[in-house]
Backbone:
């Protein structure tokens, strides 16, 4: 465990260019589809982080030929056209939800396989029952549970996809449906999944990436049914698939620019990105943020905190929930009450995120009211300043617990860049900053570079 990291306040506007890491969501989807495909796929702009390393390690353990070059953010995968070379393996997915769910559905493709799956203690509590039930009821796999039924650790006995219609409960995580949408069509028969009440943003990413690997467009009907013809995935045109930059990661730097004013250039982002987290820019508009998009980059302009709106608001994060912590961490500076809703499912992610953010904000003197699906935050900037001064009198900083969750570390780091005591000195520190390795290993280095212009 590393020592708490003091956050250096910014004392001037942002001026610079930001190179974002590749999207974790897209990288891990592309790795699964490349492995399923016929031919070799070269992924450019790929993310190299804890979660993608887990996926890469699993695929290598299953016998896939993979070459990586982290200096060029590139990965080459030799696809096996719907086959898995090794029929028995033990895989550890850490606390990577995409790896856990995508691999579970992927492993069911190969009849006669026997695969043991486990993860960190936190992963053993995360929801996967909807996926296991769909695989069992479709005849694609059977399971032995080594501890608690319906959770990791487990052994999967694969029987192959057989087609037909299957009801899927993906209310706990859209990754459950995404996993099936990618893996099942590689079987020999058409399949239909009925999954109402699923959050659409990440499903849209899955369907878009599938098309790059030879799948026809698919859309849900009025009852949430997805009809998927059997197909042989193929490597993308020219053998290259470009990974989009991570817009969850962008949210921190959009907030940074709104907070301090100035101009930030973000290359390699298009006007119509795949990721729903692009909507976070709209949430910051009342705080004076402006985003201009062209075919090759985003230009981001901020006006500083004096431009912040002081009108109470309710914001629905259900379609871009990875960014709700980014916003919640800013609320001590916003001057009026905000309600954040659409976040019930995030109670079963890396940690109970609404409970954790409420706890950290309350430590900072803020008033937070929770419901299962929402947080209502009443800011108190005076209380925050008082707590910071008391800590400094004891030669201490206010410390943020991160719960092994990268989004706590990055969100509160942006709050820490605010010059709260108007002396340019740190007042807030982040515990276990290395947890950012899950999706953005260079986050604090990137933040420091922008501090120095």
Residues:
């Amino acid at each position: 465990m590393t020592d708490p990291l003091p956050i250096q306040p910014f004392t001037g506007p942002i001026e610079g260019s930001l190179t974002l890491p590749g999207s974790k969501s897209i990288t891990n989807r592309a790795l699964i589809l490349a492995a399923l495909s016929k031919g070799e796929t070269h992924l450019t702009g790929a993310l190299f982080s804890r979660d993608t390393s887990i996926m890469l390690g699993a695929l290598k353990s299953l016998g896939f030929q993979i070459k990586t070059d982290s200096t060029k953010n590139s990965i080459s995968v030799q696809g096996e056209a719907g086959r898995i070379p090794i029929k028995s393996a033990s895989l550890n997915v850490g606390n990577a939800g995409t790896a856990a769910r995508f691999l579970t559905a992927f492993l069911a493709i190969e009849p006669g396989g026997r695969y043991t799956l486990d993860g960190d203690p936190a992963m053993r509590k995360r929801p996967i029952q909807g996926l296991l039930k769909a695989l069992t009821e479709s005849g694609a796999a059977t399971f032995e549970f080594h501890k608690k039924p319906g959770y990791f650790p487990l052994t999967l006995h694969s029987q192959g996809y057989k087609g037909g219609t299957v009801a899927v409960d993906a209310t706990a995580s859209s990754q459950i449906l995404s996993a099936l949408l990618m893996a099942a069509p590689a079987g020999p028969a058409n399949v239909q999944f009925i999954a109402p009440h699923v959050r659409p943003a990440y499903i849209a990413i899955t369907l878009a990436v599938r098309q790059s690997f030879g799948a026809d467009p698919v859309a849900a009907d009025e009852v949430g049914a997805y009809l998927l013809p059997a197909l042989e995935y193929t490597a993308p045109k020219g053998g290259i698939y470009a990974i989009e930059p991570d817009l969850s990661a962008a949210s921190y730097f959009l907030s940074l620019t709104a907070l301090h004013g100035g101009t930030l250039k973000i290359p390699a982002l298009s006007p119509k990105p795949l990721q729903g987290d692009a909507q976070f820019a709209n949430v910051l508009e009342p705080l004076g943020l402006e985003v201009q998009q062209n075919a090759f980059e985003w230009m981001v302009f901020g006006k500083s905190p004096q431009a912040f709106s002081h009108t109470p608001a309710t914001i629905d994060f259900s379609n871009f929930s990875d960014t709700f912590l980014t916003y919640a961490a800013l609320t001590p500076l916003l001057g009026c009450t905000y309600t954040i809703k659409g976040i019930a499912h995030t109670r079963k992610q890396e940690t109970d995120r609404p409970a954790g953010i409420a706890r950290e904000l309350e430590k900072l003197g803020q008033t937070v009211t929770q419901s299962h699906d929402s947080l209502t935050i009443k800011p108190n900037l005076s209380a925050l300043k008082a707590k910071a001064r008391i800590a400094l009198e004891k030669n201490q900083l206010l410390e943020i617990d991160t719960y092994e969750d990268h989004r706590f570390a990055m969100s509160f780091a942006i709050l820490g860049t605010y010059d709260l005591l108007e002396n340019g000195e740190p007042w807030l520190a982040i515990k276990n900053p290395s947890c950012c390795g899950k999706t953005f290993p260079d986050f604090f280095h990137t933040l420091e570079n922008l501090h120095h212009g």
User: Anything to note?
Assistant: Residues 98 and 375 are 26 Å apart (CA to CA). The longest helix spans residues 247-260. The domain at 5-21+246-451 is CATH 3.65.10.10 (UDP-n-acetylglucosamine1-carboxyvinyl-transferase; Chain). The chain is about 30% helix and 20% strand.
